[in-house]
Design goal:
Elements (H helix, E strand, L loop, with lengths): L1 H32 L6 H6 L2 E2 L2 E2 L2 H23 L2 H21 L5 H23 L3 H13 L1
Antiparallel strand pairs: 1-2
Helix pairs in contact: 1-3, 1-5, 3-4, 4-5
């Protein structure tokens, strides 16, 4: 029975990690896709993005924003059940909130944002419904022995 529990845990960790990869790829390709938008490269060359100056702090924030989903790919595989479950829920809720607050009106960006929202919603749903398979056996054992 322990093998079955290990398989269930590994399968959920793989599912969450894969969802983060899907989210991350959509996030990256949405950004890369901006380079073909007319005037984008010319604006970047002036040292501005959307009218805001490109600063070291802005680049650091961008690096952190992309690093968190990268880390979640790894953490979804490595963290133990409880920490894994809550880390996935909390980080996905934060990113989902940011996507909704800072959404876009650009049609191609909207497509990628819908995919990102779908991925994050699946992360939240899967992590929320994930039950500790190791806990079930001990609860059942206590109920049977009572």
């Amino acid at each position: 029975m322990n093998v079955q529990k290990q398989i269930l845990t590994i399968a959920m960790k793989a599912k969450l990690s894969t969802l983060w990869i899907f989210f991350l790829l959509n996030m990256i390709f949405r950004d890369i896709h901006e380079f073909v938008e007319p005037g984008f490269i010319a604006e970047i060359m002036t040292g501005k993005s959307n009218g805001n100056p490109i600063t070291e702090q802005m680049l650091l924030l961008g690096g952190v924003m992309i690093e968190v989903p990268i880390a979640m790919v790894l953490l979804s595989r490595l963290l133990p059940y409880r920490a894994n479950r809550w880390a996935n829920i909390i980080v996905a809720v934060i990113y989902l909130s940011l996507i909704i607050i800072f959404g876009t009106t650009d049609l191609d960006d909207t497509f990628h944002l819908v995919m990102e929202i779908a991925a994050l919603s699946c992360v939240i749903w899967s992590a929320w419904r994930w039950r500790n398979p190791w806990l079930k056996q001990s609860v059942i054992s206590r109920e049977v022995s009572s």
